[in-house]
Specification:
Layout lengths: L5 H12 L1 H19 L6 H26 L7 H17 L4 H26 L3 H20 L4 E2 L5 H8 L1 E2 L2 E2 H19 L1 H11 L1 H6 L4 H27 L1 E2 L7 H11 L11 H20 L4 H26 L1
Antiparallel strand pairs: 1-4, 2-3
Subcellular location: Cell membrane
GO molecular function, one term: transmembrane transporter activity
Keywords: Cell membrane, Membrane, Transmembrane, Transmembrane helix
């Protein structure tokens, strides 16, 4: 006797109920369509380039997603990525070994997050205004440190360059680092009590305070975390390209915020998943690669990305209204 396919139905039902299910279907459909539209899309070279691209940005997306869940936002992530590159590169050119220089760079990035966290939690400013000011200040620091001139770091030792350029059994180290960070923070958000406070604070800050959660501390450390991960991404970029350009990362915050929101992170806080955010950055990477292969003008590319972000924010707004 053949048992009825109850489990299959339940699995499909659960998959369809996932907010990420739509993203998965869209990404797969776009990949299939581009495989027919361009013979270069499905090649290993292009796939590897896409994986390398969104892996480093994906590290920043993880921090942004956690910050959005707590009810904040960081417009300075692109500047902080550049800041880490510039600080690490400058320290190396001054004679420090690259490992120590990069630890200092990541620490400096964390201090930027601590500064923003101070103005948000102690002074009482909102994340938007604070991070907007930090974006301009940090970008200015990059220009001051480099005097507007890119730093050439071709003398970096091979073992350090291997972080951004090396492979382990054919898999780039960048992708391995990215996967480890994604798995770690996805687990922490789902299982760790400390990270559950992030959801409680973002969902209803007053109720969280009444239940004994120190919401200011939660918001402060999440802001620091976002900047720290941006600093880590900056160090990896420096290792990959062997240079530090003071204008690097301009507009990166658009991709990062768009990816997190497309993946289900709410701009009002209290909702979001690491898995969804990674799907969001993967979708944007596929879209960017598709536009390049189809020879679409770079000006149209920016407009299309902006439209995708607007659509994602609009969908998020209507979903929140419906829940209310």
């Amino acid at each position: 006797m053949v048992a009825p396919p109850v489990r299959t139905g339940l699995s499909l039902g659960r998959f369809g109920a996932m907010r990420e299910a739509g993203l998965i279907v869209i990404i797969l459909a776009l990949c299939v369509a581009m495989s027919f539209a361009s013979p270069h899309f499905a090649t290993w070279g292009n796939v590897r380039a896409m994986l390398m691209s969104f892996s480093i940005e994906g590290i920043v997306v993880v921090g942004m997603t956690v910050l959005l869940i707590v009810g904040g936002i960081d417009l300075a992530v692109g500047s902080v990525v550049c800041f880490a590159m510039v600080v690490g590169g400058s320290m190396f050119l001054m004679g420090l070994d690259p490992w120590t220089a990069c630890l200092i760079a990541i620490g400096a990035s964390a201090l930027v997050g601590a500064g923003m966290g101070f103005f948000v939690t102690v002074v009482g400013l909102n994340h938007f205004i604070t991070s907007l000011a930090a974006m301009v200040i940090v970008r200015g620091l990059c220009l001051v440190i480099t005097k507007g001139t890119p730093l050439s770091l071709f003398t970096l030792p091979p073992e350090f360059k291997a972080i951004g350029q090396g492979e382990f059994n054919g898999v780039p180290y960048v992708i391995i680092i990215f996967v480890v960070i994604v798995v770690l923070f996805d687990f922490l958000l789902r299982r760790a009590t400390a990270f559950r406070k992030v959801f409680y604070t973002g969902s209803n800050e007053k109720a969280a305070e009444y239940s004994g959660i120190r919401t200011r501390q939660v918001k402060f450390w999440v802001t620091v975390l976002c900047s720290t991960l941006a600093g880590l991404a900056g160090v990896i970029y420096m290792s990959r390209f062997g240079a530090a350009t003071p204008t690097f990362g301009v507009g990166m915050e658009l991709n990062i915020i768009a990816a997190a929101v497309i993946g289900g992170a709410s701009l009002t806080g209290g909702a979001g998943t690491i898995f969804g955010a990674i799907l969001g950055i993967a979708l944007l990477s596929v879209v960017t690669s598709s536009l390049i292969l189809l020879d679409v003008s770079v000006y149209w590319q920016d407009m299309i990305k902006g439209c995708i972000l607007l659509a994602a924010v609009s969908i998020d707004h209507f979903l929140n209204r419906r829940k209310s």
